[in-house]
Design a protein that fits this description.
63% of the residues lie in helices and 2% in strands. It is mainly alpha-helical and 228 residues long. It has one domain: Farnesyl Diphosphate Synthase (Orthogonal Bundle), CATH 1.10.600. A two-stranded parallel sheet has the order 1-2. It is globular and about 50 Å long.
């Protein structure tokens, strides 16, 4: 469905899925029922995809954060339900990790997005400022990884480490990031994977309280403020 909007310009696929989902039929409804995923989370995800139809122009950072929740925070929520982790505290951290990755995505793809009339970064922000904001969400999101089943931690931790590395490369070389997509080399990915595995084994379980200020922009959305 993401490809339908991004690559093939066929949002009708998403609209049809949203209609079927709301009517309680189709593969999406089967998925929600199997894993007891709140329908409102899937609805937010589908609506986020539809909101991504060009042209896009975000004038406030709260709009960008809300978009990050819709297209990535919801994915974190649904993954948690599939993994059997439904506690509110875990969902908060999963949302943050999804938002962090999406903010890096936006910063990384800046040049390409502008060419197709997608501007996700408000005028009072730039790529570096957006990545620095993403860092606060990474700090929070990574705290929740140790609450997941141990077999699932390495993959999620590795993905987070790689996305965070992309963001830090943007900060280190913003001029390059304005012209083309920043990538992480295979050797660097291998090193980050090793570091992620070590982090999964060595870091203590999170005992801190979630910072709800991170959810102000989307606190009315499913699972973002204790609501389903």
């Amino acid at each position: 469905m993401d490809d339908a909007v991004d690559e093939y310009n066929t949002p009708e696929i998403v609209q049809d899925s949203l209609i079927k989902h709301n009517d309680g039929v189709g593969e999406l409804s089967w998925l929600l029922q199997k894993y007891a995923i709140p329908p409102s989370v899937m609805q937010a995800f589908l609506q986020g995809l539809l909101d991504d139809i060009t042209p896009v122009n975000h004038t406030k950072i709260s709009t960008t954060l809300r978009f990050g929740y819709n297209v990535a925070g919801t994915v974190g929520i649904m993954m948690c339900y599939i993994l059997g982790c439904k506690e509110a505290a875990i969902l908060y951290y999963a949302i943050d990790l999804g938002v962090a990755m999406q903010l890096v995505n936006i910063a990384r793809d800046r040049a390409e997005d502008l060419r197709i009339q997608r501007d996700y970064i408000p005028d009072d922000y730039d790529q570096v400022a957006l990545v620095k904001l993403a860092e606060t969400y990474f700090d929070s999101g990574l705290l929740g990884v140790h609450k997941l089943p141990i077999a699932m931690r390495p993959a999620i931790m590795t993905a987070a480490y790689i996305y965070r590395a992309i963001g830090r490369k943007i900060i280190a070389n913003p001029a390059h990031a304005k012209k083309q997509r920043i990538v992480v080399s295979m050797p660097h990915k291998a090193l980050l994977t090793l570091r992620a595995l070590i982090a999964c084994l060595s870091a203590p379980e999170c005992s801190s309280t979630h910072n709800h200020a991170l959810h102000v922009a989307f606190k009315d959305m499913p699972c973002a403020d204790g609501n389903i």
